[in-house]
Amino acid sequence: MKINQIRFLPSALALAVSASLSYPVFSQEPVDEQDVERIMVTATKRSTALQDVPFSINAQTQDDIERAGATNLEELTRNVASVSIQNLGPGQSQVAIRGVSAGQIVRDQPGVKEQVGVYLDESVISLSLFTPDLDLYDLARVETLRGPQGTLFGSGSIGGTLRYITNQPELGVTEGSVEANLNSVTDGEVGNHLKGMINVPLTDDTLALRAVVYRTDYAGFVNALGENGTRKDDVNSGERTGGRVAVKWQVTDNLSITPRIVFQKIDMDGFNRQEVYNLFANPYTTTRPAIQLGEREQYLLLDEGFDDETTIADVTAELAMDEIDFTFVYSYTDRDILVSRDASALTGSVSVDLGFPDAAVLLPSNLLDNTQVEQDTFELRAASNSDSALQWLVGGFYSDTQRLYSQRLPTPGYDAFTDATLGEGTSADVANGFPLNSPYNADLPYDLEQLAVFGELTYAMSDDLSVTAGTRFYDYEESRRFTTGGLFANGDDQTDSTESDGFTSRLMANYRLNQTVNLNAQISQGFRLGGVNDPLNETLCNAQDREQFGGFQDYDDETLVNYEIGMKAAARGWTANLAAFHTDIEDLQVTLDAGSCSSRISFNVEEAHTTGLEFELTRQATENWFISFAGSVLEAEFDSTVLDSDGNVLGGVAEGNRLASVPEVQFAIATTYDFDTPLFGSDNTYVSASFQYTGDRFTQPSDQTEGAGNFVSGLPFGGATGNEQTTVDLALDAYHTLNLSMGMVFEDLEALFYVNNVFDENTNLSFDRERGGRARLAYRTNQPRTVGVTVRYFF
What we know:
Maltoporin, Chain A, 10 helices, mainly beta, 5-stranded mixed beta sheet, 22-stranded antiparallel beta barrel
């Protein structure tokens, strides 16, 4: 969709809003506060009513989460405008807001930073490759802050910020809840979960404890074929267990201290990958069975897995003085992630190129990617709490992140074939101190330090007009060492570093037009730290890929300027929030697959932009019937062209081409109807439906170039000549999802019956090419139709 198509949308939507709402937008009628739900958020690091926040924000409350039956971030944000999520499996989702996206980032790019910051209350928990898939039980709300939030939240929030806000311990209150679920996936397994919460006072009025525990069993739905006609069903099942314990100590009337510990473990047996081509399973082989893989099928020589252990320990201290509030936050995060993949096709494809015998090509090969993170963060801030026309907030932030990323490729028996084919002693000569029978090994320890000072001033120029100005000074230093060994490696041993400092600022204005309508406008900046690419695996590259991708070493900081105007309106029974925005991006960090090298590289594109409109409308149409409509229309394009050494467009990065992984159009319609006469003696019976539409996307910028979907394997194996061509559609088709549910609420019990993905859509969420398609081609897919029941008990 081009920019001239977008320009007419604000006026068209304004007409639609006016036509659909019975209360005029500019009505001076007093608002009955009892008819308007007042949601308080902390997006500005002070408590503010949602409709008073002077920028675009969405808040999904605990009631929203429970009625939607959402169990993860992807399910929750389906009804949130301008948010798109690439689902790479539990614990591996990647979030984009307003089209600010570098494309798919995969496990072997540990130096790439996130574009959306993720927080658990006051603690930053985002990690570029692995957005934590936290359980949503007993949350107060999830806040989505759209647009750059660099002033208050720093690097990694260039597109926006997501905040999980938990329910805090309550003094003098004893309460609890239990939730049980059972669900069945079409052509898959049965899943379930069990969760519980308890809040108890430890003393009459100074100490309280709140604890949450949960366990989820994920139903698998992807089947794996294997050698000699074997088959394993539902290989992507798994489980999530965890909990959190927080204690609130009300030291004095003005001082509270809340320590907390959070633990979660995710253990998945496989991945939501459906393959189109595999070196060992394709229709071209003649000396081994020809196989055409079908929907939700893959081919494995080894079992796969994903393990993620996360521990967060934090403490928040709040001191309220007469005119100043102080907040101190310390957070420690320890995370250990192991991705275990069947890399037999990858290793086998290299073995074919090296002239190894078929017995070597067919050796099972296990790629182990391990990420270990330890992070300490400190934040101290002070904020005014007086009735003065001038309000202020100042603070300081420090973080120290130690991250060790390592890869091993254990392939028992491989060294014998290496020495027999390439010469005795070859495997020992290239090991570089790493284990034998592992043709690729790498260790990459990172050390990242960040120091920041920030502040915001808000001045009420009149009863109706306020202006906010803020800035953040940041200083980053990152260093890493890169050591590799094995036949597929270069034997690297080098140290690199990058650093950056500067200011990121914003200026906002909020004008109360009347008791119903607020108007806002802003200019804001965001940034993302640059980095250094890993050297190419040159031993795996063909000459063309070595020439094309060998020149990309470091990449610069990405910066963004956002221009935005918005309207927030609320009256009896309805809200209408709209925002139009334009962002200019400099040095956008783009990720491309480096073809046969089995490497990925990041580089800067000089200029790009996103322009769009987002809207969220709600209406209490009758006493029983509630409707919401949310969506966005977006243009996200390159404004620069990048050429290779031969003068050809590199990887689809051409002026006018789309940025990767974000749709031009997405919207969601949700409705809930409460029965006049509740069923089965319940206090309330309701039915809900939600429909989500997501437009087409591309996984990488190069996917939109002519002929990009034509893959020639180039590998003469199993009777194939190596000249066969596999053609796939790299434009990820638009898809829609319909979810239905029915709930019954009793005095202390609630039952929810639901059907998700009613039409059993098999959706291509992203595209995966192993070694440029020479080893494997696959799509990541969604969960099939799921029927389930959830029961909640409150006491």
